[in-house]
């Protein structure tokens, strides 16, 4: 999960991690509660996940203010501490001119110079607000939306992205993605109060910032929330977003104009820098149609207020301290200016900081070890494919070819060059202007890539992103440097235990190439559902139905059911990954270490209310299911632990799901 969602790909599947909470400071643990009776460790046959992770689950504590905490969260916390030290080293050095180290140092010094930031003021942001306020028509507002996108990196109702054409992966094309909802998903609006409350507070604070009277700001905020909520009701839910057949469609300019009939679509594309394109993908036509319906003079006040809020959401972290008083949602809760600066630098310069991090973490030995791990998993998958009964020889050959053509990226992007320059304070540069230059440079690089040949070796992710991602439209996947930290691959641990942890991640991403979405793309990332024969497609759909039913009936805490269809692609990737891992060896001791590593990486403490919310909207199954539901389907689990029919973990052989 990436904070800016990686556009289409994060919606398509690719994402491994569970609703990770960002812990920027050392976790504050509450005092342990004294229990009258110590919890009893479950047996392997009763609850494998609970048995392997008993010490963590019984003694661990959720940090104050968080709803969950696990290995991924702890990895994020340790990485953030490392990055803070890295930034310190940059600041206290004499970096080479134009280097990433110099960028980090200059931006840190400008952030922490609060006097200079206060003196620079907020005229730049007020100018943008003035541009919006002067608009008299929705077409004029759309023009401003384009200006904000190109020059300030601000997305609003239109969120263009450039990605490989799903029908022809040899060229990039335009995708009109889902609108900017200030970090909220549809489910936050339609199933909880979180979205409306968050959006309302942001709008109210934005209007207060530009000197709207409190009562008027409150009422106008309600009107904006009402408008956004109406759009959210017409937006695809998470399960449908994962089903690419529902939204992968090319539209020509005439068709785009028919969707956005209330505006001039040609002018809109021109405003956003895409005037030369002849076709594009509208990611969610239902949402687009509702946006068009509301882009009228009747709603011009709400549209203006929403646009100003989008600006403030994008730039709230750069507001001078003197301007933050009483702005609840815009103010930084961290009082330590040094800590705030380091967190923001790691965010705004995420690729550049990630490369500095990767250079320190990714030594030759580590990359060699992980590369060997990738080869082991791919070879295991190849062997399973060759012996898979549900596949014809033609499909087997195509799947093997797909593995051969996969590009696996480990660590960080060695070829990355920053598409912007930073003006030093000594040369008149200000912090807010440099932030804007960074955002503008990245958008201009994106716009320039339209209709170009995609670079399959270029990275989408930063090396400090605690995640891993598969991209179906290029048949590539990325394992960032932070995922190769000691939490996932520790030289002091057994190699098969490490394989169970990091190998699960690698196998999961590789397996997305063959999940309910990925299997419809050929070896170069072209969407060709027919490339696999009709009979094999039908057999796979039958398998998918079994997986849906299996997870629909899997209970957590003996009460809550997983939504099998919503989590289908991720569950398929989990099942495939573990099957590949356990096929690498038949030695009982090695298999035991593998299984323990598989269970250990999903150890996580979660409050029940948060678990219920995850089940409602998450595309991944919770960690317990990613262990127990998966290993219960693996014959090796029964052999290693002598699981009996009377054990809760037992599944009859005919009910054990095999992807291959």
Question: What can you see in these coordinates?
Answer:
With 660 residues, this protein is α+β, with helices and mostly antiparallel strands. Helix content is 51%, strand content 6%. It contains 28 helices and eleven strands. The strands form four sheets. Strands 2-3-5-4 form a four-stranded mixed β-sheet. The protein has a three-stranded mixed β-sheet with strand order 6-8-7. Strand 2 and strand 3 form a beta hairpin. Helix 4 packs across helix 5 and helix 8 (138-152) packs parallel to helix 16 (300-315). It is globular, with a radius of gyration of 25 Å. The chain starts with 7 loop residues before the first helix and ends in a 19-residue tail after the last helix. The relative contact order is 0.14. The model is unreliable at 1-35 (pLDDT under 50).
Residue share in β-strands? 5-15%
Strand order in the largest sheet: 2-3-5-4
Rg over CA atoms: 25 Å
Mean pLDDT: 91
In which range does the helix fraction lie?
A: 40-55%
């Amino acid at each position: 999960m990436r904070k800016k969602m990686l556009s289409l790909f994060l919606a398509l599947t690719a994402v491994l991690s569970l609703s990770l909470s960002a812990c920027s400071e050392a976790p504050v643990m509450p005092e342990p509660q004294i229990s009258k009776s110590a919890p009893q460790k479950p047996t392997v046959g009763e609850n494998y996940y609970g048995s392997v992770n008993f010490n963590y689950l019984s003694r661990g504590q959720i940090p104050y203010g968080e709803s969950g905490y696990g290995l991924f969260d702890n990895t994020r916390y340790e990485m953030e501490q490392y990055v803070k030290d890295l930034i310190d080293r940059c600041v206290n050095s004499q970096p080479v001119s134009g280097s990433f180290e110099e960028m980090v140092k200059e931006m840190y010094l400008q952030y922490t110079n609060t006097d200079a930031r206060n003196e620079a003021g907020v005229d730049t942001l007020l100018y943008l607000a003035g541009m919006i306020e002067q608009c008299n028509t929705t077409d004029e507002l759309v023009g401003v939306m384009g200006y904000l996108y190109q020059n300030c990196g601000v997305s609003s109702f239109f969120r263009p992205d450039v990605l490989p054409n799903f029908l022809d992966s040899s060229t990039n094309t335009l995708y009109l993605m889902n609108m900017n909802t200030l970090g909220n998903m549809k489910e936050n609006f339609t199933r909880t109060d979180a979205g409306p409350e968050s959006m309302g507070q942001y709008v109210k604070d934005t209007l207060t910032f530009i000197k709207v009277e409190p009562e008027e700001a409150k009422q106008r905020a309600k009107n904006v929330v009402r408008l956004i909520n109406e759009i959210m009701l017409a937006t695809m839910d998470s399960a449908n977003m994962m089903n690419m057949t529902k939204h992968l469609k090319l539209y020509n300019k005439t068709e785009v104009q028919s969707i956005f009939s209330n505006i001039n679509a040609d002018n809109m594309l021109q405003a956003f820098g895409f005037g030369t394109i002849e076709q594009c993908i509208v990611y969610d036509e239902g949402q687009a149609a509702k946006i068009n319906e509301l882009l009228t003079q009747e709603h011009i006040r709400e549209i203006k207020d929403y646009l100003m809020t989008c600006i403030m959401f994008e730039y709230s972290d750069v507001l001078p301290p003197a301007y933050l008083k009483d702005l609840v949602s815009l103010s930084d809760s961290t009082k330590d200016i040094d800590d705030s600066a380091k967190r923001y630098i790691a965010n705004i310069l995420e690729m550049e900081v990630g490369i500095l991090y990767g250079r320190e973490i990714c030594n030759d030995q580590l990359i060699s070890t992980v590369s060997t791990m990738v080869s082991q998993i791919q070879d295991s998958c190849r062997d399973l494919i060759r012996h898979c009964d549900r596949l014809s020889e033609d499909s087997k050959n195509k799947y093997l070819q797909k593995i051969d053509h996969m590009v696996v990226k480990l660590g960080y992007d060695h070829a990355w060059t920053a598409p912007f320059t930073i003006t030093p304070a000594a040369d008149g540069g200000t912090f807010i202007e440099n932030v804007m230059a960074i955002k503008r440079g990245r958008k201009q690089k994106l716009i320039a890539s339209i209709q170009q040949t995609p670079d399959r070796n270029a990275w989408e992710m930063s090396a400090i992103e605690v995640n891993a991602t598969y991209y179906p439209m290029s048949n590539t996947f990325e394992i960032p440097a932070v995922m190769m930290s000691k939490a996932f691959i520790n030289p002091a641990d057994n190699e098969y235990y490490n394989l169970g942890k990091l190998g699960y991640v690698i196998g999961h991403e590789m397996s997305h190439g063959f999940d309910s979405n990925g299997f419809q793309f050929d070896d170069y990332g072209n969407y060709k559902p027919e490339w696999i024969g009709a009979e094999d497609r039908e057999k796979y759909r039958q398998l998918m139905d079994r997986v849906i039913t299996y997870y629909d009936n899997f209970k957590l805490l003996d009460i809550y059911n997983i939504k099998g269809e919503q989590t289908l692609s991720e569950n398929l990737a989990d099942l495939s990954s573990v099957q590949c891992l356990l096929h690498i060896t038949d030695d009982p001791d090695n298999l035991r270490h593998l299984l323990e590593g598989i269970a250990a990486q999903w150890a996580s403490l979660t409050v029940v209310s948060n678990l219920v919310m995850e089940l409602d909207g998450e595309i991944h199954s919770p960690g317990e299911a990613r262990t127990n539901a998966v290993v219960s389907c693996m014959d090796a689990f029964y052999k290693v632990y002598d699981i009996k029919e009377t054990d809760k973990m037992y599944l009859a052989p005919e009910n054990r799901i095999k992807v291959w």
